[in-house]
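Structure first, sequence second, as always.
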């Protein structure tokens, strides 16, 4: 695995293909075992049915707690059960239908308008950047109740820039903490 660090995402994907999507674990010297999952039924087992058997580990908490606090993604045991009980209603079919779906539909309409205008005018679009803006606009409205107006702007919203920078630094720190990279990683 160490030889594959520069292409870790491809290595993980290749490994899943070789194993027909079956979970696998990797243990580096002096580190907790990291388990990789690909299928929804495996995530269900880990996140709900057997959650008490899968501790997130100190590495995860150390790296992510400044960014994510002590919410459901970072806690275990009774604290995890409490957070899950509170959050499960937020993601009910009714919540999806009544709140999330209209937000997504509205942003899809805005996205379609941008794509149609570019098609009609022949203007080039950075699809990667546009899809990031769409995702971030939708995420912030659903998650934080804030409309940034980011999708219709050529400029990146300061919150998007800060969030992206922090996400990249957390990812780098996680790779360092788990032994996948060095402190010089970018």
């Amino acid at each position: 695995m160490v030889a594959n660090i520069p292409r870790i995402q491809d290595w993980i994907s290749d490994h899943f293909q070789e194993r027909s999507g079956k979970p696998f674990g990797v243990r580096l010297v002096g580190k907790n075992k990291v388990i990789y999952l690909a299928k929804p039924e495996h995530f269900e087992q880990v996140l709900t049915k057997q959650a008490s058997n899968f501790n997130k580990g100190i590495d995860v908490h150390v790296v992510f707690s400044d960014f994510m606090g002590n919410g459901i993604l970072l806690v275990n045991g009774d604290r995890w059960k409490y957070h899950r009980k509170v959050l499960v209603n937020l993601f009910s079919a009714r919540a999806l239908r009544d709140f999330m779906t209209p937000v997504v539909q509205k942003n899809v309409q805005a996205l379609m308008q941008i794509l149609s205008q570019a098609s009609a005018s022949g203007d080039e679009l950075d699809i990667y950047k546009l899809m990031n803006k769409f995702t971030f606009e939708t995420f912030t409205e659903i998650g934080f109740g804030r409309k940034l107006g980011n999708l219709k702007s050529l400029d990146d919203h300061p919150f998007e820039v800060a969030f992206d920078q922090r996400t990249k630094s957390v990812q780098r720190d996680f790779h360092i903490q788990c032994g996948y990279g060095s402190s010089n990683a970018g």
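Margin note: Residues 102 and 131 are 18 Å apart (CA to CA).
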